[in-house]
Automatic annotation (TrEMBL):
InterPro entries: AKR, AKR1C, Aldo/ket_reductase_CS, NAD(P)_OxRdtase_dom_sf, NADP_OxRdtase_dom
Cleaved signal peptide residues: none
PROSITE patterns given in the database record: ALDOKETO_REDUCTASE_1 (PS00798), ALDOKETO_REDUCTASE_2 (PS00062), ALDOKETO_REDUCTASE_3 (PS00063)
Family: Belongs to the aldo/keto reductase family.
Active site: 56 (proton donor)
Swiss-Prot/TrEMBL site (Lowers pKa of active site Tyr) positions: 85
Name the UniProt record assigns to this protein: Rho crystallin
Pfam families attached to this UniProt entry: Aldo_ket_red
GO molecular function, one term: steroid dehydrogenase activity
Keywords: Eye lens protein
Amino acids binding substrate: 118
TM ranges: none
Length: 324
């Protein structure tokens, strides 16, 4: 597959998504300004796909960075592909458009390129992002995902967003939307955790068969945020097989991990606020993994998740009880 720095995939609605995105999430202990600086560096380096979310609490900073790079002539608005996400306290149809409008206002942008349902699990609607009762138990809610989807379709029709998709859905939840009566727009993507220890081959195959792009997050392992990550999990970029292949190509393990997913047709999100690494992570277009490399990396899969969501495993829409 010939890839160069301007490579993109065509989505099922005709829009185009750059194959590498810059992830902007950082654990709360980091200053929000890092996302602003990081996004500017990323755009300078050549990233044209910026992935953010209302939940990250930094859309103002990321929006500022995008606007600064438009103002200084580095990019035009139409060169940038911005992804935002609908948080789980706004699944009720009447909250969808206001949630999108709030993000656009924080970003100071007229439209988003992609707006996705952050996860299928819904919490009690309101301003509290993780509503819990007096015993600390999460308060769930149960809007039909199809009704949430219809509200997203209306946002697309209103011109507030170009493409709509989902995140963290299993294949049954995707099918629920694909098979809904009166479906106007198919989800263009499903953004999920995807890395060499969780290569998502079954979900990837399913998505490809439905013309849905699989977008991978945590492709380099994870930020090891204590709130979500089990400290004992292996550090992906220190994997001996990955290190070996990196040596062979005179590359970093991160570049090999990203290249592996790109060659499988996965759109990858890379996250770093270190300028040298932001640049390094983008240098994956000028080498190719051979069939033996690909097989060897396939063999690293162990269906292991870095992101621990087991606290919500009693949610009726918990996605990970299904194999894919």
């Amino acid at each position: 597959m010939a890839l160069h720095k301007d490579s993109y995939v065509e989505l099922n609605d005709g829009h185009k998504m750059p194959v590498i995105g810059f992830g902007t999430y950082a654990p709360p202990k980091f200053p929000k300004s890092l996302a602003e600086e990081g996004t500017k560096v990323a755009i300078d380096v050549g990233y044209r796909h910026i992935d953010c979310a209302f939940l990250y609490g930094n859309e103002e900073e990321v929006g500022r960075a995008i606007r600064a790079k438009i103002a200084d002539g580095t990019v035009k608005r139409e060169d940038v592909f911005y992804t935002g996400k609908l948080w789980s306290t706004s699944h009720t149809p009447e909250r969808v458009r206001p949630a999108l409008e709030k993000s656009l206002k924080d970003l100071q942008l007229d439209y988003m390129d992609l707006f996705i349902i952050h996860m299928p699990m819904e919490f009690k609607p309101g301003d509290d992002l993780f509503p819990a009762d007096e015993n600390g138990k999460f308060i769930y809610h149960n809007t039909d995902l199809r009704d949430t989807w219809k509200a997203l379709e209306k946002c697309k029709d209103a011109g507030l967003v170009r493409s709509i998709g989902v995140s963290n859905f299993n294949h049954k939840q995707l099918e629920l939307i694909l098979n809904m009566p009166g479906l106007k727009y198919k989800p263009v993507c499903n953004q999920v955790e995807c890395h060499v220890y969780l290569n998502q081959s079954k979900l990837l195959e399913f998505c490809k068969s439905k013309d849905i792009v699989l977008v991978g997050y945590s492709v380099l392992g994870s930020s090891r945020d204590e709130r979500w990550i089990e400290a004992s999990t292996p550090v992906l970029l220190e994997d001996p097989a990955l290190t070996e292949i990196a040596k062979k190509h005179n590359r970093t393990p991160a570049q090999v991990a990203m290249r592996y997913h790109l060659q499988r047709g996965v759109v990858v999100l890379a996250k770093s606020f270190t300028p040298a690494r932001i640049q390094q992570n983008f240098q994956v277009f000028d080498f190719q993994l051979d069939a033996e490399d690909m097989r060897s990396i396939d063999g690293l899969n162990r269906n292991m998740r870095y992101i621990d969501t087991s606290r919500w495993s009693d949610h009726p829409k918990y996605p990970y009880s299904e194999e894919y």
